[in-house]
Amino acid sequence: MTDDRSASTGTLPHPQASVAPNTGVTLAPVQTSRARVTEYTIGTLALVGTVATVWLGVWVTPPDKVQGDLVRLVYIHPGVAWVALYLAFGLAAVSSLLYLWPRTRSLFWDRLAAASVEVGVVFNICTLVSGSIWGKPTWGVWWVWDARLTLTAVLLIMFLGYMALRRVPAEPEVRARRSAFVALFAAVDVPLVHFSVNWWNTLHQGATVLNANLSPQIHGSMAWTLLLGFVALTLLFVWMLLVRYRIGVLEDWLADNELDLALAERQSEGAGLDDKSPSDQGGAA
Amino acid sequence: MWRDAVLVAGKDLRIEFRSRVALSQVAPFGLGALALFAFALGPDRVIMAKGAPGLFWVAVLFCTVLAIQRSVSVESANGARDGLRLSGIDPAGLYLGKSAAVAVQLVVLEVLLAAGVVLLYGARIAVPWLIVASCALGTIGLAATGTLYGALSSGLRVRETLLPFLLLPIVAPVLLAGTRIWQAGMAGGTPSDGTQWLRLLVVFDAVYLAIGVALFGPIQETA
Amino acid sequence: MRYVVGGYVFILVVLFLYAVQLVWRRRRLARAVSQVAQVAQVAAAAPPVPLRATAGRSIDAVPIAEDPT
Predict the structure, then answer these.
(1) Alpha helix locations (H) across chain A?
(2) How many separate domains does chain C show?
(3) Is residue C23 a part of any domain in this protein?
(4) Quick count: other Cβ atoms within 10 Å of Cβ A51?
(5) What is the CATH number of domain A29-210+222-257?
(6) What pLDDT does C67 receive?
(7) C13 touches chain A (CB under 8 A)
(8) Alpha helices, DSSP H only, in chain B?
(9) Domain range list for chain A
(10) How many angstroms separate the CA atoms of B117 and B122, rounded?
């Protein structure tokens, strides 16, 4: 992560942090070399892991007795689902809570939550589409109101709502609090939706056993590939999170300093002018 | 807290009584929605009777959104929101009061919509207490969550589009439970199916009321 | 089998495109930030312009420019 904690706490910047003493512009956030190395390492591992998972999943592992080749989707679909539903959402919820908690309040948690939600949306869409693609040959239709798919869809809408709320212009602290509350309320709702949709589905469809996931015994190369898939996708999520977090830091810094920069530019324009009659000078800052 | 709640609820209901927005605008909209559903699903009364529980609750959800918008916008004139905060009213009381006012309006609307559904769709109610219980508990849940989200989005100019977007996924359990309980209570349904859903509604209501009472104060400072 | 391929392709393409977008977005922002920091430094180096030409003097002492008409 970057070392810009002072710029991210929302408190007044330390006077010596100002790179431009006559302007209000604060110190530009710089990525430490340790953060860069971490990012590159995780990114490379994620890439290698993903490629390996694909290769193993599509070519090396054997087809299933029951599902045939379709089982190959098990190496990525549960993986993206785990990232979207548990990792991304869970992280967003915990970060939001930590932001709201007075002792740990820091815009770091807010930016982390926002990054987590955005990356989570991408993985969520992957989950829904891959689940749907798996469903078509399995159930015969592109969509069923299966409990898990429905919950994933509802979660997607909640994620999108969170992102829409964040786009409303506001002070960073206000935006952070608002978003954190929304995330908290959504988090509380998820178990309720989970139970509702499960009961709803079983009542409706009776004993439809969704066999789209694992055969009872998954062993050997299949098990290892499954594990690799989870690990690779998790690493990919972490890498995307790091980059997206960094983007949040930069965006916030730019938004913070736009006005100060414009003022500084006006001042530096005025510096070149002679002392003419006052109405000719637009020097008021 | 309770005294403040009664005060605020009384104020909101009095405003509603004098302006009659819910009665003259939201109710016709709800009934109009029922008509639209009828047009959409065709004149076959069998289908409509089967769909009646769900359609009822969807109409209720639409009305909830409108009622919440109204509840929020009532405070936006003349700096009323700041006035409320400065007046020293307990935020939890304010929350409960506003929720109660919304709930009362929704109950009135639901009576109308239920009558509409029975008359227009040919729905036949077999176990009335289930219907009443689902409406009561469901309304509490809708009012509780709606007031929360209304407060969160109260200062925003995009509130009209943002509030339904944020609120409706959250109240999905209420919609599911309400529909199921109604189905259990209709002629031809199994009443015992309804009880677990009633329990879910109780949990939902308790959770969001607790959240509202605890957090309404901090939320207000955000808007 | 084509479902399997379809599933894999979709996921990989979406993740890849999103990753590319992230990297591009960060690069663009980093460039903007460094530009802003540079301009800020230039502005800081320039001597501060007095806020008004009246600095230290009474405002009545400063003549208003004649109206050309």
Answers:
(1) 5-8, 33-55, 77-81, 89-100, 107-139, 147-166, 172-205, 221-270
(2) 1
(3) yes
(4) 12
(5) 1.20.120
(6) 61
(7) no
(8) 2-19, 21, 27-41, 45-73, 80-86, 91-121, 128-152, 159-170, 172-185, 194-222
(9) 29-210+222-257
(10) 7
Neighbouring CB atoms inside 10 A of A205's CB total 14
Decide if B162 and A164 are in contact by the 8 Å CB cutoff. yes
Establish if C13 belongs to a structural domain.
no
Residue-wise pLDDT tens digits, B93-144: 999 999 999 999 999 999 999 999 998 888 888 888 889 999 999 999 999 9
pLDDT bin (cut points 50, 70, 90) of residue A4 is very low
CA A198 to chain centre: 26
pLDDT of residue A9: 40
Specify whether the CB–CB gap between A126 and A84 falls below 8 A: yes
Q: Closest approach of chain A CAs to the CA of B70, in angstroms?
A: 20
- Cα A64 from Cα A251, distance rounded (Å): 48
Q: Let me know if residue C11 belongs to a domain.
A: no
Q: Which domain covers residue C26, as residue numbers?
A: 19-46
Higher pLDDT, B78 or A73: A73
Phi, psi of B87 (to 5 degrees): -70, -10
Give contacts of C15 with chain A, Cβ < 8 Å: 50, 122, 126, 236
Whether the Cβ atoms of residue B127 and residue B188 lie closer than 8 Å to each other: no
Contact partners, residue B147, CB within 8 Å, separation at least 6: B68, B71, B95, B98, B99, B102, B212
Cα B208 from Cα B70, distance rounded (Å): 20
Residue A160: alpha-carbon gap to chain centroid: 12
Say what the pTM is. 0.83
For residue A68, the cross-strand partners are A64
User: CB neighbours of A97 closer than 8 A, spacing ≥ 6?
Assistant: A180, A184
Question: Cα-flanking dihedrals φ and ψ of residue C55, to 5°?
Answer: -50, 120
Residue C24 counted as domain residue: yes
Q: Residue A201 is encoded by which pair of tokens?
A: 């589905």
Among A residues 132-161, those touching chain C with beta carbons less than 8 Å apart: 133-134, 136-137
Q: How many CA atoms lie within 13 A of C20 on its CB side?
A: 6
Determine the Cα–Cα distance for residues B5 and B101; give it in Å rounded to an integer: 10
> ipTM score of the complex?
0.88
